[in-house]
Amino acid sequence: MNPAGVDEKTALEHGLTAEEFANFCAAIGRVPNLVELGVLSVMWSEHCSYKSSRAVLRDLPNDGPRVLQGPGENAGAVSIGDGLAAVFKIESHNHPSYIEPYHGAATGVGGILRDVFTMGARPVANLNSLRFGTFDHPRTRYLVSGVVAGVGGYGNCVGVPTVGGEIYFDRGYNENILVNAFTLGIVRADRIFRAEASGVGNPVLYVGSKTGRDGIHGASLLASSEFDDQTEEKRPTVQVGDPFTEKLLIEACLELMEREAIVAIQDMGAAGLTSSSVEMADRGGVGISIDLDLVPKREAGLSPYEILLSESQERMLIVAKAGAEEQVREVFRKWDLDAAVIGEVTDDCHLRVLAGGEEVVDLPIAPLAQGAPVYERHFAQPTKQAELQRLSLGDIAAPGDYNRSLMSLLASPNIASREWVYSQYDHYVGGNTVVRPGSDAAVVRVKGTNKAIALSVDCNSRYCLLDPYVGAMTAVVEAARNVVCAGAEPIGVTDCLNFGNPEKPEVMWQFREAIKGIRDACTALSLPVVSGNVSFYNETDGRPIPPTPTIAVVGLIEDVKIHCKQWFETEGDLVVMLGRTREELGGSEYLATLHGIVRGTPPWIDLSVEKSVQAVCLAAIREGVIASAHDLSEGGLAVGLAECCISGPGEPLGAEIELEASIRPDAWLFGESQSRILMSLKSRHLSRLREIAGQYNTPLTVLGAVRGSRLRIGRLVDVDVHEMRSVWSGALAKWMQGEAP
Amino acid sequence: MQAKVYVTPKAGVLDPAGKATERGLHALGFEEVHDVRLGRYITMEVDGDTADVAARLDDMCRQLLANGVIEDYRFEIGESGVE
Amino acid sequence: MQAKVYVTPKAGVLDPAGKATERGLHALGFEEVHDVRLGRYITMEVDGDTADVAARLDDMCRQLLANGVIEDYRFEIGESGVE
Amino acid sequence: MKCGVISFPGSLDDADTVYALSQVLGIEAIPLWHKDRDLHGVDSIVLPGGFSYGDYLRSGALARFAPVMDSVVEFAAKGGPVMGLCNGFQILCEAGLLPGALVRNQDLLYVCDEVRLRVERVDTPFTNACAKGDVLRLPIKHGEGCYVADEATLARLENDGQVMVRYVDESGEVTAAANPNGSLHNIAGIINAAGNVFGMMPHAEHACEGLSGTRDGSLIFRSIERWLERGGRT
Ligand SMILES: Nc1ncnc2c1ncn2[C@@H]1O[C@H](COP(=O)(O)OP(=O)(O)O)[C@@H](O)[C@H]1O
Ligand SMILES: [Mg+2]
Predict the structure, then answer these.
(1) In terms of DSSP H, where are the helices of chain D?
(2) Catalytic positions of A
(3) Residue B46 to residue B77: CA distance in whole angstroms
(4) Which of D214, D59, D48 has its CA nearest to residue D147?
(5) A421 within ligand 1 shell (Cβ under 6 A)
(6) Contact C64/D182, CB-based, under 8 Å?
(7) Which of A79, B34, D72, D160 is 20 to 30 A from residue A340's alpha carbon, by CA?
(8) Structure confidence at residue B11 as a pLDDT band (50, 70, 90)
(9) Gap from C81 CA to chain D (nearest CA, Å)
């Protein structure tokens, strides 16, 4: 055992505080050596230990009748009946994607896929949630094209359809973009695999790609410290993804899982071999001993430190049943992949690592894992918050020309059609896609059943900046509403909490407020949060990003045939709106785009009203009384109507809408009041819809009808639908070419 | 002038394409090959004289032709039409 | 020995990647470039002596490294470790 | 009909093709493994889409050396119907069973979309259930679908009617706007001179069940079925 203990200075260089280092030394009764310090530093990094968030995250509801696996495993799982489970999780890859957009985004997709199939689930759908700076920033176009190409490059080649997502542009992300990737998989409920090592003497196998110097101190440390001018030096540590190998790894692992060979399995993500072995041992209350000489390597001369911390992609760690080694090798040989026994499960609850016959690590598991610090960080409302929320509508002039206002909103980067993005993603592979990107939620059929899953991911970070509590609630209810508009019952949530530096009281305040918002919204809608991810230190030169708690909601459709899309179907149908429009313009896209104002309070949410609105919509779709349903979000009623006219695959349809001028017209047209859904239906179904709405005493307004080839709203708006479509659908491509549409 | 640009994966950076190609060559019976690395070879005509063409090419490589994070590049400048 | 293989689009065959790269360079203000062609640059270590390595490389190119329908190839063989 | 569907490492639409054939169209589908030369007595073969061997060097370049391909070449030489979709098309070109090649899309972007295809020939094993000039709706999803060939080859393809399907607009017209990847002459699919090897970029297998709209892909598989039932005549 190499005794050369390290000093405090080295510990600080590894991102530990003096106190943390002292505590650990006390816990193990000696000073760790350099390799052990490397292990400690990644295990105690924010990324792996959740030391700043764990205490707060406890507030999130994560239980419910459908929950099969809550937070704590590689991914969450909820029952969808028929003995099947939906396994899903969302994860961030923000800093790597800023440094190398293509491979950063690609390896983000690869990582989340492994989290899901490591549980035995076949990945069937991906979503991606993206945030970039504005187009006047010199790097934005480079970052957007790289990230989108990377998400597609990996997902398309690995054979999992990318069926939805979101993309927003805001100054606040100019130097710190967000790339959050979501994967959903399907597994037999009684065949869920977990990462809990057990069985002293069981072999530990390493499978997948060989180990190289990739990403050493990459994800773990990158994601745990702010960006500064030193960042350049971290560049070479960015990993490169190999989706082809991942595809083979998926097939090999799922095939092996059909046999009775596996005790526990876990992907090697951030902090690779170290975190996977420590976490597996910790969950099982056992020890693990591995010999680095047996690890398949890509290049010569890797030090024990490098091998333990390497973040080479497409690798998994398996605890197999004693005697099953050959079975494992056989399956991986079939798929032309490496499989090597590198160690075994032990009873001493230590991590022991051999290299060249020498023991280079001998650490007790407990202090590395549960022993990680938990901080109650200080929090304080930003002093400017009240000022930020002050908005006097009186000073805001109503537009002279509402047609032009609508057109410029349709061309704005945050509202324009996302087709430029999702046309670069395969949304057919797997053969289950029912509703492709372009409607409120994607719908994916569950093979072998009549069922389908609806998916949406959402977050309006402008709302979150103005009021993180309301903003986070909105993210939950909008994602749920999107799923409901497709005809699905929301059954589970996963969240990706992207925030600034948690050591800053203002950021911690934003974080705590957001958690409260998610908690209250999920509780009201009885939605369990079964998995998630926290990404702190999203700052550049001290400026935090707008708080961005991204929420993905998974919904269940009992009969795949009974689902709904957002666009108008037939000339002559009635156009109605569920919910009520209030005079709310705070934080709206309208104020930001047309008045350059980002302030005020975001639209308020009455959770009981939201609940009723969703219940009415779901009942109406299930009874088959409505032809289309579209949730109202950015751009409000006018933009929502426009999208219903032009977002369908066929010829665009017009509409004649009456104006209800009870409030100021721009608020009525472009305000973003929550809990509203636009529907179209046959007039003969109106009375039935009224009854349903009545049962939940939910306001229902008949706005007009689908008619002609122009969108007419009172005497304020009158535009040709083809004109609208060409502007809306071409805008993002134009922004990407550097032309403002 | 004629310019030839060579873009290669940085040493140590994973090169899945090279890896797959090496495997393919082995499968075809070319066991004697190893360390296969796949890069790009870009040829172009550039107006201007050697000195400033070199400077411009360096810009092109850094801005577009090579990805400095994972790739190295070098270039040669010669008279047009000469192989 | 070290081998360098150059694979280039045949003259007359459409080279969309080269065209797109040229457009990209022009967009960045490098108007002086034209006839941009995008090819592959493959390096590898090969055991054996020059003579038979050359023959083997030619096989590799014809069978795998180049697609004769749209691409030309040539290669150089040198001592390992020499740039 | 007993249709073989080959799985190469990195094939992605192989399972979907087997599903479309057996579960949707009620046609017997036999999975074929790349390492296995045995064709298990199939009477038709589909090379599915995907990224065989990662498509890292050139799409389709490595797959053509898989052991099963020797049997495919033999099968094709005897006149057996062989169809390559997307990556399968690329493999058939690399294997020299079809002329020309498929290179990066004109704008270098991967494209996933639904396209219109005009059927140029119906006296073939793959299109006899269509009418000449029919406009089919099929999905595409590829990054290297730009069909290229030298002038002589192109001329021969056009003169001998080897162009099977072309990208067109709703009204069936060949336009630049309807061309999703820059393919010469808007070519989406071609057939060999002997008339038994067919490759196209669009995905017939993803347009059989009609989950997200079109069922036009089933026409292609039904054509093969009919052709076989008629003892190899259209
Ligand atoms: N990055 C992306 N990847 C795939 N699909 C996307 C992406 N961004 C947006 N979309 C799709 O575009 C459509 C519109 O997105 P969005 O405006 O966020 O819808 P909503 O406002 O209803 O949540 C949705 O179908 C969404 O899935
Ligand atoms: Mg949204």
Answers:
(1) 14-19, 67-77, 87-94, 151-159, 217-229
(2) 47, 93
(3) 9
(4) D59
(5) yes
(6) no
(7) B34
(8) confident
(9) 24
